[in-house]
Each structure stands twice: as structure tokens, then as C-alpha cells.
Design goal:
Structural class: alpha+beta
Distance between the termini: 9 Å
Order of helices and strands: EEHH
Number of strands: 2
Number of helices: 2
Shape: elongated
Strand order of the largest sheet: 1-2
Oligomer: single chain
Length: 87
């Protein structure tokens, strides 16, 4: 199933609700994002990036790193995109 398939579940006596989001990123997508993060880090380390470019790409790298580790891309959800495959 593609896209957002979250659901609310009740937790504890206080009936607090937590939204559970289904992962929508496949392994290839996650690896590519991680490699982009490594490329940005190397470019910064050897001095190819500085100033605004370094800050902008650093923020992008952090977002890519976070999404590759959790396996969910919030940007995919409104469009119903999933690279995870079936199963």
C-alpha cells in the first residue's frame, strides 16, 4: 500500500493518542540518501563548501540522514509515494 497509512492507538490509562506512521522508504532510497549525506560531509571537510551553501546543504544532509534512519519521508506522504515495495 502506498502513502500515509498512519493510525491512532490508545496508550495507558490517560487515553493519550500516538500516531503511528508506516515506513515509506525502501532500502535503495535510504542508501542513496545516506551516500548523499556522506558526499556533502566530504565536500565540506575538504573545503569545497562554505558559507550559505555549507549551511543549506548541511540542513539538507541532516534531513536526509534522519529520514534514512527512520525510513519515513514526510515529503512523500501528501503525494502517496512509497519506495518501500510490497511485503
Amino acid at each position: 500500500m502506498c502513502g500515509y497509512t498512519g493510525r491512532a492507538v490508545r496508550i495507558g490509562r490517560n487515553n493519550l493518542e500516538e500516531e503511528v506512521v508506516t515506513k515509506n522508504m525502501g532500502m535503495a532510497d535510504r542508501v542513496v540518501r545516506f551516500l548523499i549525506v556522506v558526499g556533502i560531509a566530504v565536500a565540506y571537510a575538504i573545503g569545497l563548501l562554505s558559507g550559505g551553501w555549507a549551511i543549506g546543504l548541511g540542513v539538507l544532509a541532516l534531513a536526509f540522514l534522519l529520514t534514512s534512519f527512520i525510513g519515513t519521508c514526510p515529503g512523500y506522504m501528501p503525494f502517496g509515494i512509497s519506495t518501500r515495495g510490497r511485503g
